[in-house]
Each structure stands twice: as C-alpha cells, then as structure tokens.
Amino acid sequence: MSTVNLTVKTIIKDYLYNFETISLKKGDSLTLYKREVLPVLYLLSLGCLRLSKRYSNKKRTIALITPNSVFSFYSKSGFKDAYHQLEACALSYIIIYKPEVSIFFIELFHIQYYHLEYFNELLYTRNLLNRLINLLLFLCKFFGKISKRGILINLEITHEELSQIIGTSRTTITRILNILKDTKFISTCKRKILIHNVLYLSCLFIFL
C-alpha cells in the first residue's frame, strides 16, 4: 500500500468519526453567518430543510435539502450583509462534521458550492440580455481558452441548451446572439462561442 493511499484512508477515518449531531423540530431554524474560521460540513440524515439566504431586507430560498444531502454555509460571494438560515420542514437530524481534520474534503466541496452560488447569482436577473451575457461570462471563466482573437468558450453548446439554462426560448437566444455578433462582441466557430473582448462584454452588462 502506498503512503498516499494510507494518508487518504487515515484522513477519511478521522473525518468520519469527528462529528456531532443536532435535531430540529418542524418550524425550528438555525442561522449561521459567514465564518471567519474554517467552515464545517453538514449532512442531513433525516427530515427536510429549507435553505435560505437572508439579506438585510429580504430572504431568498436557495434549496430544499433532502436526506443524505451534504451542504455548507460557507460563502465566497462577497455579500457581507448576507447570511444563511435553515428552517426545518419536518423533524430533522443534522450531522455536523468538524473542520480540524476535514479541510481537504471541505475545500473540494466549497469549489463546487462556489460554482453553484456564483452561477445562481449571475442568472438572478430579469433582463434576458443581461442573463445571457452573465452566462457567457460564466462559461468564459470556467471553460475559456485564450486565442489570438479573444477567449474561446471551449464547449459545444446549442441555442436550445442556452435557452433551457436561462429560461427562455431558442428564438430569443438566437436573436440576442445575432445582436452580439452584429456589434462584434462575439462570433462563433464550429458551434463554439468566441468572446472578442471580455471587458467590453462585461461593460455592456453593467450599462444595460
């Protein structure tokens, strides 16, 4: 057995046994602010929870958490006045894993959580043009490949798929993309989108 495999198994063993449990009755809530120390992971073993993001003057439901779901309250979105709240929809039991020996797993989880949160925030706009630009910038960030003409989104994606992601029709996507092409913000190459200048496209979103 290699040293690497032995180390990973040791971490997993410590991770699995370093936890505590809490229970929430229906209607009970648990509020956590952005942590200044290492975050912890939560596992819902039984019940149903409503996860919300609260701001100074509003609350937005992010997800319904079902049994065997792993989640965290750690946030990298930059909203300092925001925090998370759990509300039990039924009697719920939560396993809380400590951060001391689980940093490796926590960081992996938060990469995925950050992507989901970032994607959620970007698409939370009513303007369809802004929504599509946000999606293109998101794809550029995670799938972008630098070329001589700009940044190529190295992902084949159809107009139908884009329309399903942002919640509109395929014809609307085609119309908006044609506008961006005519104004030289983007072009297409073998079913891939090329963004000529990310900064200009970002500015277009800001001023819309």
Which descriptors would you attach to this protein?
Arc Repressor Mutant, subunit A; 12 strands; 208 residues; four-stranded antiparallel sheet; disordered N terminus; alpha+beta; Jelly Rolls; 39% helix; 2 domains
Characterize the structure shown:
The protein is of the alpha+beta class and 208 residues long. It folds into two domains: 112 residues, Sandwich (Jelly Rolls), CATH 2.60.120; 80 residues, Orthogonal Bundle (Arc Repressor Mutant, subunit A), CATH 1.10.10. The strands form three sheets. The chain has a four-stranded antiparallel β-sheet. The longest helix has 20 residues. The chain is elongated.
List the helices and strands and how they pair.
Layout: H1 3-17, E1 19-24, E2 29-32, E3 41-46, E4 49-54, E5 59-65, E6 69-71, E7 83-88, E8 92-97, H2 103-122, H3 128-143, E9 144-147, E10 150-153, H4 159-166, H5 170-182, E11 186-189, E12 192-195, H6 198-207
Antiparallel strand pairs: 1-8, 2-7, 3-6, 3-8, 4-5, 4-7, 9-10, 10-12, 11-12
Helix pairs in contact: 3-6, 4-5
Quick take:
With 208 residues, the protein is α+β, with helices and mostly antiparallel strands.
Q: What name goes with the CATH superfamily of the largest domain?
A: Jelly Rolls
- DSSP summary: helix tally: 6
Cα distance spanning the termini:
59 Å
Strand order of the largest sheet: 1-8-3-6
